[in-house]
Amino acid sequence: MYNLPQFNNLVDMAVQQASQRNAAPLATFLKDNGAQDDAASYQSLHEAACAIAMTLQEKGLSGRNMLLLFAPGIDYIRAFFGCLYAGCVPVPAYPPMGARDLDRLQKVAKDCDAGAIVTNQALAPVIEHWVQQLGYGDRMPCLALDQLLNQPLDSGFQPYQAQADEVAFLQYTSGSTGHPKGVEVTHGNLLANFNQILHGFFAGNERLDKLEDLRVVIWLPPFHDMGLIGGVLTPIFAGAQVTLMSPLTFLKRPLLWLQTLSDQKAHVSGGPNFGYQYCVRKISEEQAATLDLSNWHVAFNGAEPIQSAALDAFSERFRVSGFDAKAFLPCYGLAEASLFVAGSPSGRGAQTLKAKLDRLEQGHYEAALEQAAAATTTDLVSSGVVARGSEIKIVHPRECRECQPGEVGEIWIHSPSVARGYWNKPQFSVSVFNATIEGDDSGRHYLRSGDLGFLLDDELYVTGRIKEVIILAGRNHYPQDIERTLQSANPTFRTGGGAAFAVTIDGKEELVVLQEVSRAAADQTDYRALAAVGVKAISSRHGVTPAELVLLSGSSIPKTSSGKIQRADAKRLYQEGKLVPAHLWQAASKTKAVQAGPAFDSAADHLDFYDQLYGDLQQWVADKLDIDPHHIDLDVTFSELGVDSVEAVELVDRLQDRIGRVIPAIELLRYPTVQALIQHFADELEEQALQSAKTVDLEIES
Fold first, then answer.
1. Looking at residues 144-168, what average pLDDT do you find?
2. Superfamily of domain 352-467
3. Would the pTM of this model clear 0.85, i.e. be above it?
4. Measured CA distances, 574 to 544, 554, 636 (Å)
5. In percent, how much of the chain has pLDDT > 70?
């Protein structure tokens, strides 16, 4: 194994790497077209962090929590380390794109008692407006990074050197409870996790002469643990080089991700199941043949439970690119443990078990015979072995006793990477971060993950989330299994577009399943027959009949930025009646369908630019959602339209075609509603027309 560096804290890490690596490239950020947008060396990051820190200290903000609101880019990294150098605690967040995001930001700002917001000059006016909306006035100043960087450097400035047990940053969880919690991740937690990640990724598989030769490519957002810790901080710890791109860039051009890996002969990259599935959908075999992925040694997959079908499809499509399926490194982690908890041995690839479905539903793993009927089995992908220096126990979640071998229980973690607790929530922190096992006299405390799984031959298999398990007639049903069964029954059901959950009807727990259907086949689909196929598949495989199967023709099911289904939010939308079904199947009752309305009459030629564009986009969204156009209000954000992130990218592309120029991400943030963006373009064209008229007048006068 490589000799890993030793640092006292993250500031010491950045200072030492700047001294040793100097002008060596650290990070490059790519535009949508693949061209370089911004870059930083180890030395330039150190200098930028010093300049930012000096100003923050001068403003009396040392020791305060600082909200970071940036679009993905190098400025985010500069601001993060600038806060650390000043003795501040950075709080990663993302600029809100709608009312829901703004509400969450308000809760985060209030919970962490933010001393200020750090952003860039282009976004500052918008952020200041939001701050006024949140009612903070001058109590939360908005600082533009551009101005902070312009401060003259003091040669005598000394960056703040934190103790290992001090909080490095607050990672707010993206749960759907409406009450975000800030995880207190310390410097010591992070340094331990960097060691665990690199040991897990390369132990026994050292293909490079030294870690400094490591090249990484990341499209994950820097606001969350996988993108920040795995994609930015770990490469800095290793002295490596990382190429970054926005998640929106990946959604627009997934080929660019793999093309960058190919061109740079990069060694490490990855993401959740969604990313691998998306590449198979969007990248043709002909395009795959142009790539060279033979240097991709570690393809991590951090979405749990991991789907073997996604890995198989990806390795099959990109075998022609030289991709080796042994590069797959399924792993498991969570923000409360910094990031990495367990991972597949490097260079082995994914390991899959075939389990008896009925026994798993009863809370026990039992191996299924290879010749067993597919309807009676389920595949489980190992999340690998426990990280070095850590310990995992499988514990009965209510009785707090250690489970027997093969018994499914809650995953409890003891590790130097386990965070200090939740910010300003001492009692809750004790219950989550200081759990003890019944009958264990060692005095050891554990983190309760909230995830279910079991250990077999020292490998971890994750089966689901405690809060999402559906208990019917005394049996545990995992929602992802039910969703997968339904989606496998007919190709019209969109993969990754379902949500199964339990609701109480007449005092009894019942199963409800939401499922998106492919738009390509929607017009020719017999929904009643399709629903019958789906219900039969669920009933025969899982022994339970849904009370309702709701078919949706639009992308109505909420997902995280990484493509994970937010089942709690989906259930809330269902219970509040905010979903418009294409078809509703109900057990022992009449089905009802929502019929599409008449087509929208396109705008007449005499309408001005604004009305034409508004009408065009209104019709486009209506077609996507399969509802009447006059129900479409464009005075909402892209996320509130009901289209998913991929379709939002298509909408932006359509706008770009109409106005004849590229729309930078900054404009989407400054004009977050579709109507505001259209009005901005109309005003822009009007201003161009006025300028042209003035030019003509001047030419005539001359």
1. 89
2. Luciferase; Domain 3 (2.30.38.10)
3. no
4. 20, 14, 21
5. 85
